Amino acid sequence: MADLASVFGLVLTATSLGLAVYTLYQARSVREEAERLRNRFLFRERASDFLEGIAEFADIIDKQVKRAPLPPHEVRGMLRECNARIQNFVPKFTEEEEVQARSKQLRREIENALEGRAVSRENLQEIYAKLRGLSVAVGELLEDRKKWGHE
Predict the structure, then answer these.
(1) Under a CB-based contact definition with an 8 Å cutoff, are residues 51 and 136 in contact?
(2) Which one-letter DSSP state was computed for residue 67?
(3) CA distances, 134 to each of 53, 99, 113, 140 (Å)
(4) Helix, strand or coil, per DSSP, at residue 149
(5) Phi and psi (nearest 5°) for 68?
(6) Is domain 40-148 classified as CATH 1.20.120?
(7) Which of 3, 33, 119, 135 is surrounded by the fewest CB atoms within 10 Å?
(8) Measured CA distances, 143 to 15, 29, 134, 140 (Å)
(9) Helix or strand (DSSP H, E) at 137
(10) How many H-runs (helices) and E-runs (strands) does the chain carry?
């Protein structure tokens, strides 16, 4: 009878340990899912801000090229700020080769423009085209992620 009680005690202990491990596993899964949802929300918010910033820079450059030139120091400051935003945001797209490639080309174009004495109209037109291309690539990526739920 004592052996049966020992076995029963061991079974209860093993069951309790199993439930404890399962509960810890579920808690970790819930925490991971909460973190994933939080990151998804933050990514969408940051991407929207990034796209708005890119559109703002593109509009400024478009005006600069077409009609209302800014003083050279303001153009350089705006290009530096644009470059910094791209540099800070694009690493979030580590697996997206097109976004990485476009951002690298754009940053190179901005750095080349900043190296010269004056930022030429041609530099600005090239930067504008690359900004628009990057904006489209990020926008399409966001739409794909929304569609497939991979944000």
Answers:
(1) no
(2) T
(3) 12, 6, 18, 10
(4) coil
(5) -110, 85
(6) yes
(7) 3
(8) 47, 27, 14, 5
(9) helix 121-148
(10) 4, 0
Q: Which residues of 21-58 are buried (b: 16+ CB within 10 A; e: fewer)?
A: eeeeeeeeeeeeeeeeeeeeeeeeeebeebbebbeebb
Residue with tokens 């340990």: 17
Amino acid in position 27:
A
Per-residue model confidence as pLDDT tens digits over 24-71: 888 888 888 887 777 667 667 777 777 887 788 788 777 777 766 667
Q: Where are the domains of the chain?
A: 40-148
Task: Say how far apart CA 84 and CA 22 lie, in whole Å.
Answer: 46
C-alpha dist (Å) from residue 141 to 90, 124, 128, 148: 12, 25, 20, 11
* Predicted TM-score (pTM) of this structure: 0.56
The CA-to-CA distance between both ends of the chain, in Å, stands at 59
Q: Return d(Cα 133, Cα 126) in angstroms, integer.
A: 11
Taking the C-alpha atoms of residue 50 and residue 11, their distance in angstroms, rounded to an integer, is 57
